[in-house]
C-alpha cells in the first residue's frame, strides 16, 4: 500500500459513529466567520514530505480548522503556531497555513494526528483512539526515513508509544512520562515531547515561540537535518 492509498482509506473512514455525526454536523452548521465556505467534514489526511525524517504527531483535527479546510493543522491558531515554527526550523517553505491550496510545502517533515476526525470538545473516546491507531502504525511503516516523532501533548505521546509497541518496540517500564522537551531515545522512532500549540497553552505563556523552536531544533538534530 502507498501513502496515497492509505490517505484514500482514511478519508473514507466511517468507523466511529459519534465522530462521523459530529464532524458532519459541524460541516453543516459552520461557524459564522466561515459561513460562505464548503467544509471538508471528513477524516483529515496527513500532510508533508514522503521522505520525511521528522514526524509531527498531534491529537486530532480542529472542528473549524482541519475539519473545515481538509488539511491537518490548517486554518486554526494551533496550526498558525506549528507551521510558523516549522518554517523557522527550515522544515516548511512558508510560515502560514490557511487552505489546502495555499502553496505550503514541508521539507523533511510530515504532520499527522492520533485521531483523524474532529472530536467533540477535542476529547476522543478510548475506543475512537483505538480504531484510529492502525493508521499511524501503517504510516510509520510507509515513512521509512522517519528518525524522530515530535509528540504535541500527552495524548500524542501515548499514541506514539502504542504505535511503536505495535511495530515491535517495547515500551520501557516504568512508562516514560510526557513533558515538554522530554526524550525517549531508541534506534527507531525516538520520541520528543512538546506542549501542544493550542490557545490554552500559547495564550497563557505555557508554550512560547522560543520553547517550540527549541524542540524543533532538537528534532532536526536527532533526525540529522
Overall description:
The chain is α/β, with parallel strands linked by helices and 225 residues long. It has a single domain, classed as 3-Layer(aba) Sandwich (Uracil-DNA Glycosylase, subunit E), CATH 3.40.470.10. It is 39% helix and 10% strand. The chain has 8 helices and 6 strands. The chain has a 6-stranded mixed β-sheet, sandwiched between helices. A hairpin with a 6-residue loop joins strand 5 and strand 6. Helix 4 packs across helix 8 and helix 5 crosses helix 6. The longest helix has 17 residues, at 126-142. It starts with a helix and ends with a helix. The mean pLDDT is 96.
Which key phrases capture this entry?
8 helices; six-stranded mixed beta sheet; alpha/beta; about 220 residues; Uracil-DNA Glycosylase, subunit E; globular; single chain; 6 strands
Order of helices and strands: HHEEHHEHEHEEHH
CATH topology annotation: Uracil-DNA Glycosylase, subunit E
* The CATH homologous superfamily: Uracil-DNA glycosylase-like domain
CATH class: Alpha Beta
State the secondary-structure class: alpha/beta
Q: Taking all residues together, what is the mean pLDDT? A: 96
- The main sheet orders its strands as 1-3-2-4-6-5
CATH architectural category = 3-Layer(aba) Sandwich
Task: State the share of residues found in helices, binned by percent.
Answer: 25-40%
In DSSP terms (H or I, runs of 4 or more residues), the helix count works out at 8
End-to-end separation: 27 Å
Question: What general form does the structure show?
Answer: globular
Total of domains: 1
Note poorly predicted spans: none
Q: Oligomeric state of the chains?
A: single chain
User: What proportion of the residues form beta strands (DSSP E)?
Assistant: 5-15%
Amino acid at each position: 500500500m502507498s501513502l496515497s492509498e492509505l490517505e484514500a482509506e482514511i478519508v473514507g473512514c466511517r468507523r466511529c459513529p459519534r465522530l462521523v455525526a459530529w464532524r458532519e454536523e459541524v460541516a453543516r452548521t459552520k461557524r459564522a466567520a466561515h459561513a460562505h465556505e464548503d467544509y471538508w467534514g471528513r477524516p483529515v489526511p496527513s500532510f508533508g514530505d514522503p521522505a520525511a525524517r521528522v514526524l509531527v504527531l498531534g491529537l486530532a483535527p480542529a472542528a473549524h480548522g482541519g475539519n473545515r479546510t481538509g488539511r491537518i493543522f490548517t486554518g486554526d491558531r494551533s496550526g498558525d503556531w506549528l507551521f510558523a515554527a516549522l518554517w523557522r526550523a527550515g522544515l516548511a517553505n512558508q510560515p502560514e497555513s490557511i487552505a489546502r491550496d495555499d502553496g505550503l510545502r514541508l521539507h523533511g517533515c510530515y504532520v499527522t494526528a492520533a485521531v483523524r476526525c474532529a472530536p467533540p470538545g477535542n476529547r476522543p473516546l478510548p475506543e475512537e483512539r483505538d480504531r484510529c491507531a492502525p493508521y499511524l502504525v501503517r504510516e510509520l511503516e510507509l515513512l521509512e526515513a522517519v528518525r524522530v516523532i515530535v509528540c504535541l501533548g500527552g495524548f500524542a505521546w501515548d499514541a506514539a508509544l502504542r504505535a511503536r509497541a505495535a511495530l515491535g518496540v517495547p515500551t520501557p517500564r516504568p512508562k516514560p512520562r510526557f513533558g515538554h522537551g522530554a526524550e525517549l531515545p531508541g534506534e527507531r522512532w525516538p520520541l520528543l515531547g512538546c506542549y501542544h500549540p493550542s490557545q490554552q497553552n500559547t495564550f497563557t505563556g505555557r508554550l512560547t515561540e522560543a520553547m517550540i523552536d527549541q524542540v524543533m531544533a532538537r528534532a532536526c538534530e536527532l533526525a540529522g537535518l
